[in-house]
């Protein structure tokens, strides 16, 4: 218990300090990027796709809602740390090594940016392993980092488009409008999609019993992220940008569609996965069998919370939420125990969840079940 708290504290402190320092640096970069009014316009336009993207990833995260602090940390890491690190590495490398803009766009940017984004997932896996149960968690956290990264990058690109770069691109609202459509309307999912491959690789590693999969899946995921990113960036260099019109429908749209299908399929498995795991836990006396439907079935979960609010007010609702969350965490942990991929401290961690459930269970009542009345 003490070790988990220490790891959680270390992770929080490290991420907070690095993010704060990077946020200051990014603020300086933004201040040097254009006039305040230009930056305000760029920030507002860059924010347009953020809400819908967040809603999609929060929908994926409904079965086992991740701590909001970690989701916010992932967003902040992408917006400040990954963005600033990518700017520094590419800038210093270009000055020292002297690589061309084309090489930086197609090779350096994908390698560096996917590494800086993926590093948050590695830290999360190292210090907060209990919050990383598999592919779905990898998709959610990768998506949050990608959304944050894309937001800041879009501000920089939109501000530069307004200012103009040379006689061929004089800038102004027309340039901003074209770039806004390309980056914020047609392809807002690009960075979350790239980083999703890293998240999938890490998620497969967490859930696998094979040493080879645990070792190679994260590497393969990162390389796929880099390859997709490189193909995306490289398409803008083909045929004076016409390559984008080919790569987008033939590669990006199908890849995005497959990723959506994978995400929905993985999410649909969560109900049966939790049901099987908690049914086995019930046979071991860790949870009342009658409670399981109020944990694994989302409509039943909502009805249980409404019932708790009606009969216990805000306190009853809070206790029901805590009970359900602890039961879900127990279910995922028990699933890993059954698969033989449980973390070393799973007994102590599982006991924490059971204690939380026991403490809340005595203060709540569940709505009527098909076999009878309300139960306690």
Automatic annotation (TrEMBL):
InterPro entries noted in UniProt: PrsW
Among its keywords, does the record have Nucleus? Answer: no
Is the keyword Transmembrane helix in the record? yes
| Residues passing through the membrane, by range | 12-33, 39-60, 72-97, 103-127, 139-160, 180-205, 212-232, 244-266
Q: Which GO terms describe its molecular function?
A: metallopeptidase activity
UniProt entry keywords in alphabetical sequence = Hydrolase, Membrane, Metalloprotease, Protease, Transmembrane, Transmembrane helix
Please indicate which superkingdom the organism of origin belongs to: Bacteria
PANTHER family to which the protein is assigned, alphabetical: PROTEASE PRSW
What is the name of the protein in this document? PrsW family intramembrane metalloprotease
This chain's source organism reads Nocardioides dubius
Q: What is the lineage of its organism?
A: Bacteria, Bacillati, Actinomycetota, Actinomycetes, Propionibacteriales
């Amino acid at each position: 218990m003490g070790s988990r708290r220490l790891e959680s504290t270390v992770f929080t402190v490290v991420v907070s300090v690095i993010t704060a320092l990077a946020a200051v640096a990014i603020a300086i970069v933004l201040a040097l990027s254009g006039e305040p009014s230009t930056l305000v316009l760029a920030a507002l336009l860059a924010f347009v796709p953020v809400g819908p993207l967040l809603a999609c990833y929060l929908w994926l995260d409904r079965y086992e809602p991740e701590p909001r602090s970690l989701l916010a940390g992932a967003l902040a890491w992408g917006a400040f740390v990954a963005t600033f690190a990518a700017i520094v590495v590419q800038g210093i490398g270009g000055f020292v090594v002297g690589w061309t803009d084309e090489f930086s766009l197609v090779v350096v940017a994908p390698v560096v940016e996917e590494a800086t984004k993926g590093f948050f997932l590695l830290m999360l896996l190292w210090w907060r392993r209990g919050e990383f149960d598999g592919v779905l968690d990898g998709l959610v956290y990768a998506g949050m980092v990608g959304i944050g990264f894309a937001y800041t990058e879009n501000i920089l690109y939109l501000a530069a488009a307004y200012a103009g770069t040379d006689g061929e691109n004089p800038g102004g609202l027309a340039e901003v409008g074209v770039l806004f459509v390309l980056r914020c309307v047609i392809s807002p999912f690009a960075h979350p999609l790239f980083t999703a491959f890293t998240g999938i690789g890490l998620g497969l590693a967490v859930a696998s019993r094979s040493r080879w999969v645990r070792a190679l899946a994260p590497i393969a995921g990162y390389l796929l992220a880099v390859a997709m990113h490189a193909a995306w960036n490289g398409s803008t260099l083909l045929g004076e940008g016409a390559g984008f019109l080919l790569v987008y429908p033939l590669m990006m749209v199908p890849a995005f569609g497959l990723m959506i299908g994978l995400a929905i399929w993985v999410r649909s498995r969560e109900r049966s996965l939790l049901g099987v795991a908690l049914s086995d836990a019930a046979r071991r006396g860790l949870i009342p069998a009658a409670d399981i439907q109020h944990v694994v079935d989302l409509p039943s979960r909502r009805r249980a919370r409404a019932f708790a609010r009606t009969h216990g007010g805000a306190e009853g609702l809070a206790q029901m939420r805590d009970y359900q969350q602890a039961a879900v965490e127990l279910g995922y942990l028990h699933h890993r125990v059954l698969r033989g991929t449980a973390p070393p401290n799973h007994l102590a961690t599982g006991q924490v969840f059971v204690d939380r459930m026991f403490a809340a269970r005595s203060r709540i009542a569940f709505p009527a079940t098909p076999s009878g009345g309300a139960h306690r």
